[in-house]
Amino acid sequence: MTEAPARRTPGTPCWVSLIVHGLTATQEFYGALFDWEFRPGPEQLGPYVRGRLHGEEVAGIGQLPPDRHLPIAWTTYLATDDADATAEAIRSCGGTVAVGPLDAGDAGRLAIASDPSGAVFGIWQGLRHSGTTTAGVPGTPVWNELVTRETSMVAKFYQTVFGYETEAVLSADFDYQTLHLDSVAVAALHGVGHALPRDRGPHWMTYFEVADTDRAAARVVELGGRVLQPPREGSSGRLATVADPEGAVFTVIRSTGSGSTESP
Fold first, then answer.
1. Tens digit of each residue's pLDDT (9 = 90 or more) over 68-97
2. Are 237 and 264 in contact (CB under 8 A)?
3. What pTM value is reported for the model?
4. Do the bridges between strand 56-63 and strand 13-20 make them parallel or antiparallel, or are there none, so unpaired?
5. How does DSSP assign 27-67, residue by residue?
6. Which Gene3D superfamilies is this protein grouped with (predicted)?
7. Angle at 62 between CA 67 and CA 28, to 5 degrees
8. Of 199, 218, 201, 210, whose CA–CA distance to 238 is shortest?
């Protein structure tokens, strides 16, 4: 008998997914980088696989239809108990719902949306599939952060839609707000001003835990990807920003104390 998946507190990042042109080549890249194995499905939305680590589900990768040309980027999914109600809240607060809400078989119900600044994210109402089932070990997503121009306006959107409490870093030259649910830090908003990449705009960044940041960055290059920001020390560990062969950007981090999920 299969146990019902544990409920995720609404607003908690619960899954990350990537839609690409070359599904097989992308599986080879992430399999070699993170030791993921893959299981197909659900296929209601087209070819799709779930990356697994030691039998636990970590992330999803799907294939774009040949006639679609969308930005290749990791998408952070936020948990909800009611995808339809959350989609309506997103619209009423100035966001946009581009896809759904729609069912992914019996796995759950999802929508793809963007906040008022244009940053894309997903919402996920888990049924049989609650999301990522392991965290903190190398190869797993450990943090999600919105990179935007400035945080004050967009913070109100996320607070209203998902009920976050925010904690700002009090600094004249550092615009950073941590998002909390039930007093637990679950994600962050990072305002970078004019340093925001013009070709990307505001976006959610996924951080993946690695055993060795320098080795992981070198491995990305060996596998056909690029290093965008070389390994450097952050407040929560050593991190590097990289891109896979199709251009999807993500961050690898060796967390301080290994397994820490606090903000970088």
1. 878 899 999 999 999 999 999 999 999 999
2. yes
3. 0.93
4. parallel
5. HHHHHHHH--EEEE---TTSSEEEEEETTEEEEEEEE--TT
6. 2,3-Dihydroxybiphenyl 1,2-Dioxygenase, domain 1 (3.10.180.10)
7. 110
8. 210
